[in-house]
Amino acid sequence: MRALRVTPLVSIATALLAGTGLAQSDKPDKPLPIIRGAVQDTLGRGLEGAQVEIVGLERTATTGVKGSYRIDGVTPGKYWVVARRIGYAPLRAALSFNPGDDREVVFQLEPLAHILPDEVVTASDLRWQQRFNDFVWRSRASSGRFLTRDDLQREQRRYLDQVVSKYLVGIYDHSLGALSVGSGWGRSSLGWASSASSGFGSGGCVPLVSLNGSRPLGGWQLSDFRTEDVEAVEIYGFTRSLPMEFQNWAGRCGLVVVWTR
C-alpha cells in the first residue's frame, strides 16, 4: 500500500510510487487500482461527510465518522482527485493509477476564514471542475505529455525546467542550459521569448507558459517553479501538437501548462 499525504501547504510527506511499467498494464492478473485514506482538518482530526471525487470518472466517496473513505475499481490513468467539505477549502491532487495499485491518500483541509454565499462557492467549484475534466480529457486524446504529482516526485528534480527539458527534444539547447528563442521579447531562459538568445536557425526557441490554464501573457519561466509547488504539467512541444482550445495561444515553439498546488 502506498501512502500520500496532501495538504494546502507544500508538504507531501511520503509517496511510495508504483514500479510497474505501462508494458505490464494489460496483464489480467493485476486488479484495478484502489484509493483509500482519510479527510482530516489541519489538526489531523477526521472530517465526517467530506466528499472525495476522481474527476473524469465520476467516482465519489463520502467519509464516515472517522473521516475515512475508499474507492475501488479505479480505471488506470492520470486523474485529479478532489476532496471537499462545507466550511473548508477544497484540496486537489494529480495522481497516476496503475493496475494493482492500492493507494492511501490523506487530505488535510483548511477551514475557510469566511463563509461565502453559496452561489459564489458553487460557481468557483464548477469552474475548477471543468478545468480538471479538460486536463483528464486532453491526457487521453492529445499528443502532448502529461505529468502528475506522482511523475514529478519520481523525477526527484528541484526545478520544473529540469523535468520538462527532456520532453522537448529538438528545442532544448543544452549548450545554453536553457531553452532559447530568436525573436520576441523577455528573458532568455526557459519560459518565454527573448531577442537576446540564439535564433531559430541555431537550434532553439522557448514554449510559452500558461499558469493554471490561463492565457500565457509572458513573464513566467519554468525555472521559476519548484517541482514541489507544481501539481501537474501539460507539455506540447510544437504548435501542431496543441489541442484546439490552445491553438491561438502558442507561437512556433509550443506550450507548457503549469498547474500549481
Name a few traits of the molecule:
alpha+beta; Immunoglobulin-like; Ferric Hydroxamate Uptake Protein, Chain A, domain 1; four-stranded mixed β-sheet
Describe, in plain words, how this protein is organized in 3D.
By secondary structure, the chain is an alpha+beta fold. Helices cover 14% and strands 28% of the residues. β10 and β11 form a beta hairpin. The chain starts with a strand and ends with a strand. 39% of the residues are buried. Mean pLDDT is 74; it is low at 9-25, 119-123 and 172-203.
CATH structural fold name of the largest domain? Immunoglobulin-like
- Count of individual domains: 2
Cα shape:
globular
CATH homologous superfamily annotation of the largest domain: Carboxypeptidase-like, regulatory domain
- Whole-number mean pLDDT: 74
Helical percentage: 10-25%
List the uncertain runs: 9-25, 119-123, 172-203
In whole angstroms, the N-to-C terminal distance is 24 Å
* Radius of gyration from CA coordinates: 20 Å
CATH class of the largest domain: Mainly Beta
**Strand order in space, largest sheet:** 1-8-2-5
Name of the CATH architecture of the largest domain: Sandwich
Instruction: Work out the strand percent.
Output: 25-35%
